[in-house]
Design brief:
Elements (H helix, E strand, L loop, with lengths): L1 E4 L17 H14 L6 E4 L3 H14 L3 E3 L19 H10 L11 H18 L5 E5 L1 H11 L5 H5 L7 E8 L2 E7 L1
Helix pairs in contact: 1-2, 4-5
Length: 184
């Protein structure tokens, strides 16, 4: 299973659902085709957000696979336009991860995000046993999934890849049990 965090998106567009990729993001998405070119992919899933779908669409087109949209793979719901205010990003992320059951901005907590993503992942794993799949996702959503398997995962770990877009994480499962994780 490959989680592909979206490529660079245009933060001038505040709407989460329709935020597009930048020109660089589109180029990077096109280059992902080469990464997956020699791999046999059975299914492709994605968050409904345009930036996630647009990142994996070139792969889906090349492979001739329809993208299955799963609302529960969307990014953390936020009541803040943190991208546009003065709060330091590292401080904001740190606050989210200090107490994963507390909302920093009135939006979804990390614990709620993780539960939603892990529940959806369990459904996909049940449906796609022994299959190679791609899931188009987001930074905080992906971090919450990783934290489900790496119990010491923190905001500092998230900060290590927060600016890497696109970002690929390979996870190998036996049924619902994670066997291996590789952050490419």
């Amino acid at each position: 299973m490959y989680f592909v965090r979206h490529a660079e998106s245009d933060h001038k567009i505040i709407d989460e659902l329709t935020r597009p990729l930048t020109t660089k993001g589109k180029k990077d998405a096109d280059e992902l085709v080469n990464h997956f070119d020699k791999m046999s992919i059975d299914s492709i899933y994605s968050s409904p957000y345009l930036r996630a779908v647009s990142t994996i669409r070139p792969i889906a087109n090349k492979k001739g696979i329809a993208i299955s949209i799963r609302d529960n793979f969307k990014e953390r719901s936020s009541n803040s336009s943190w991208i546009h205010n003065q709060m330091d990003l590292e401080t904001f992320v740190g606050r989210m991860w200090i107490d994963v059951n507390r909302s920093v901005d009135g939006g979804e907590t990390i614990a709620e995000l993780k539960k939603r993503n892990i529940n959806e992942l369990a459904l996909v794993l049940n449906k796609c046993k022994n299959k190679t799949i791609i899931i188009g996702t987001h930074g905080t959503a992906l971090a919450s999934i990783i934290s489900n398997y790496e119990v010491n995962f923190s905001g500092k770990d998230f900060m290590k890849f927060i600016n890497i877009m696109p970002y690929i994480v390979r996870m190998k499962f036996n049924e619902q049990e994670l066997i291996e994780i590789d952050r490419e």
